[in-house]
Automatic annotation (TrEMBL):
This is Lon protease. ATP-dependent serine protease that mediates the selective degradation of mutant and abnormal proteins as well as certain short-lived regulatory proteins. Required for cellular homeostasis and for survival from DNA damage and developmental changes induced by stress. Degrades polypeptides processively to yield small peptide fragments that are 5 to 10 amino acids long. Binds to DNA in a double-stranded, site-specific manner. The active site is at S687, K730. The keyword Amino-acid biosynthesis does not apply.
Length: 783
């Protein structure tokens, strides 16, 4: 507040005019009886002041609701104070300084003039004080608290404390006290608008009481801080003296030097306050331990980890969407959904400063680029990249760390890797999450529930560190070949992005864009004009690999590059162009055969589509009939679900035999044998149900099954065909095998249409809802 005084002498009985000039003030409220200096700027207001001085008139002092330079009438409070100008203390061309004395409360009823200054019609708000016992008690209470506030160090003019005992008017006392309260303008305005002195005294009493309580608390805190500072300074001086004595005696203590260095590192580490308290406590403990003791290195190692953890060190994200998109496109072909998700994450980061890291799970066959995609994401974001493999981990301590009571205890892999990275916001890849073990040593998958939950991992506690570390800044990415073996609760915490595999054309483009240049570099051929023909790459893809990913394709290309390198070193004639016949020469005869195109239409043999961990594949379902007594034989390493599908297919055929044109008693004198070749490979799943049903119908109706049509779908006893998963993998497998048409459940139509049009154009697709819908699509009519 500006320097002010308070007048308690009897006010003039001069009548208040009906219309007076209005002077707005910012960040303050003028009360009656208050003498206050004001600085007036602006031609209009200076004119109003000069006219009021010349005519010895009142002016109205009204507070502004907002701190603005050009106020409108709506920006003024309605209640203000009529004041007399006591004197002009200083005047210049641009402003004027005056001393005013508040006279009475007024209420503005109407503004009659807005230029060059405001004039308004006002009415005086008269204050009537009724002397009661309650008022007397409030007066004494306010006086007592006001004096106590002054005793506790409140800054007040010298004469105010002595003056307050002479004030008998409750309204004047309330206004005097309100002037020196540390309140915002809005609260002081409320006090000005209170006409009833009793109510005003009660509010002032509450404010004074609260202010005294806060002052006492503040004093207590200051005393405690001063006491602590004194103790700290004393310890510092004593240590300095001890160090000086040791130096004079030539006895520099290496142990104390090490302790001092650790103390400096703790201060530089910028740990959270609660962690710093733990570190300081451990340091004090370490100070008292003999360096030769076995406990010393345990405590020292623990302190080193606390210091090296990047509590507040992180990298700044690259939030340029176009640049990130370019990096992702440079490193990976296709994978549009995954790239779009990463760009969405970057976009949200740009709009929202703190974002809890999403938990992405890349699921797909081996060699589809899951791990390398994590590296690309880190490069696109400009973050550090960390990768740990969870395959075969069985001990919970690998994730959460060991208790420090164990010999050789260490933090878990999560904290260890973050320490190595030196950043609290890396891209952290947890590879092979579907291959975590589980035994008597603990359940690592359950330990990951906290790590991979954005609602919990902001306070992850490693057993070794034993203090909370914030993992919410980390972008966790997990990879898996299949999700069936992943803990259900763990799977629920992750956003799954499927990488289904690549078509032949995609593999060709990836080979030219990434694999061939990479292998030429790695085998020292970057300066040699070695080129691969398209047909050569197709030959490698079709005849020497059978996979959804790219690993074997890269191996075969690397094998060719090595043989060219050998020619160069041996001084032989160099093969500069890799043609199809060169592929056969370097890689040998073809390793894989696709039998579909070479097979004949046969009775009792249907082609099914299966999903495997390494992508999709085709399977032949063979059915045969022989004399016997109602026995069903299933061979080919079929799992329980697949065996049930075969039983359901047979039951459907038997229950619908008459309608299908089959002898209803065929099973009474027959045995049925269903076999799925490649018997050494375990097979399971319900999607072969429709293929088994078609094989049985073909066998019993003696209608040949088309060799170029493959089916997939789960069947029910009522003949419904249910949807299945892994549609893209199965479609790619069918194309690789030379299948010309596929039959899918009708409810898988959306899954099929999500596949690239380029792939769909290579194969014909039909949809079925019932088993009967597939009969004419698959079986050839008898001639």
């Amino acid at each position: 507040m500006k320097k002010a005084s308070f007048s308690v002498h009897k006010q003039s009985d001069e009548a208040l005019p009906e219309i007076i000039a209005i002077v707005p003030i910012k960040n303050d409220v003028v009360f009656p009886q208050l003498i206050l200096p004001l600085e007036i700027t602006g031609e209009g207001l200076i004119k109003a002041i000069n006219e009021a001085i010349a005519k010895n008139e009142f002016i109205g002092i009204v507070a502004l609701r907002y701190d603005i330079d050009l106020p409108e009438p709506t920006d003024f409070y309605e209640v203000g104070t009529a004041a007399k100008i006591v004197k002009v203390s200083e005047a210049t061309s641009g402003n004027i300084k005056i001393l005013i004395e508040g006279v009475a409360r007024i209420k503005v009823t109407e503004y009659t003039q807005t230029a060059p200054y405001y004039k308004a019609r006002v009415e005086e708000l008269r204050v009537f004080t009724e002397k009661t016992e309650t008022v007397d008690v409030l007066v004494q209470g306010v006086i007592t608290l006001f004096k106590l506030s002054a005793m506790l160090g409140k800054t007040l003019p010298k004469d105010v404390v002595s003056m307050i005992d002479t004030i008998n008017n409750p309204s004047v006392l309330a206004d005097l006290t309100a002037i020196y309260l540390e309140l915002p303008v809005s609260e002081k305005q409320k006090l000005l608008e209170m006409i009833d002195p009793k109510k005003r005294l009660r509010v002032v009493f509450q404010y004074l009481n609260k202010e005294i309580q806060l002052t006492e608390v503040r004093e207590k805190i200051n005393e405690e801080v001063a006491k602590e500072m004194s103790k700290t300074q004393r310890e510092y001086f004593l240590r300095e003296q001890l160090r000086a004595i040791q130096k004079e005696l030539g006895q520099d203590d290496p142990h104390m030097e090490e302790i001092n260095k650790l103390e400096e590192k703790i201060q530089e580490a910028k740990m959270p306050k609660e962690v710093e308290m733990v570190a300081v406590k451990e340091l004090e403990r370490l100070r008292d331990i003999n360096p030769a003791s076995a406990e010393y290195p345990v405590s020292r190692t623990y302190l080193d980890y606390l210091i090296n953890i990047p509590w507040n060190k992180g990298t700044i994200d690259n939030l340029e969407i176009s640049q990130a998109a370019q990096i992702l496109d440079e490193d990976h072909y296709g994978l549009e959904k995954v790239k779009a998700r990463i760009l969405e994450f970057l976009s949200v980061c740009k709009l929202k400063e703190k974002l809890k890291g999403p938990i992405l799970c890349f699921c797909g066959p081996p060699g589809t680029g899951k791990t390398s995609l994590g590296k690309s994401i880190a490069r696109a974001l400009g973050r550090k990249f960390i990768r740990i493999s969870l395959g075969g981990i069985r001990d919970e301590a690998e994730i959460r760390g060991h208790r420090r009571t164990y010999v050789g205890a260490l933090p878990g892999r999560i904290i260890q890797e973050i320490c190595r990275a030196g950043s609290n916001n890396p891209v952290f890849m947890l590879d092979e999450i579907d291959k975590i073990g589980d035994d008597f040593r603990g359940d690592p998958a359950s330990s990951l529930l906290e790590v991979l939950d954005p609602e919990q991992n902001f306070s992850f506690v490693d057993h070794y560190i034993d203090v909370a570390f914030d993992l919410s800044h980390v972008l966790f990415i997990t990879t898996a070949n299949i999700l069936d073996t992943v803990h259900t609760a763990l799977r629920d915490r992750m956003e799954v992005l499927y990488l289904p595999g690549y078509s032949e054309d995609e593999k060709l483009r990836i080979a030219y864009q990434f694999l061939i240049p990479k292998q030429l570099r790695e085998n020292g051929l970057e300066d040699q004009p070695v080129t691969f023909q398209n047909q050569s790459v197709y030959k490698i893809i079709r005849e020497h690999t059978r996979e959804a990913g790219l690993r074997n394709l890269e191996r075969e290309i690397a094998s060719i590059c090595r043989k060219v390198a050998k020619e160069i070193v041996a001084g032989e004639q160099i093969t500069n162009e890799i043609r199809p016949e060169i592929v056969e020469k370097f890689l040998g005869p073809r390793k894989f055969f696709y039998q579909v195109a070479e097979e004949e239409d046969r009775i009792g043999v249907a082609i099914g589509l299966a999903w495997t961990e390494t992508g999709g594949d085709i399977i032949f379902v063979e059915a045969s009939r022989m004399k016997g007594e109602k026995e069903l034989t299933l061979t080919g390493q079929l799992g329980e679900v697949m065996q049930e599908s075969a039983i359901a297919a047979l039951s459907y055929v038997r229950s619908n035999a008459k309608r299908l044109g089959i002898d209803e008693n065929f099973y009474n004198t027959s045995d049925i044998h269903i076999h799925v070749p490649s018997g050494a490979i375990p097979k399971d799943g319900p999607s072969a149900g429709i293929a088994m049903c078609m094989a049985l119908i073909s066998l019993l109706t003696e209608r040949r099954a088309k060799r170029e049509v493959a089916l997939t779908g789960e069947i029910t006893l009522t003949g419904n065909v249910l949807p299945v998963g892994g549609v893209k993998e199965k479609v790619l497998a069918a194309i690789r095998a030379g299948v010309k048409a596929i039959v899918l459940p009708a409810k898988n139509k959306d899954d099929y249409e999500e596949i690239d049009k380029e792939i769909r154009n290579k194969i014909q697709c039909s949809y079925i809802q019932k088993v009967d819908d597939a009969i004419d699509l698959v079986l050839i009519q008898k001639s």
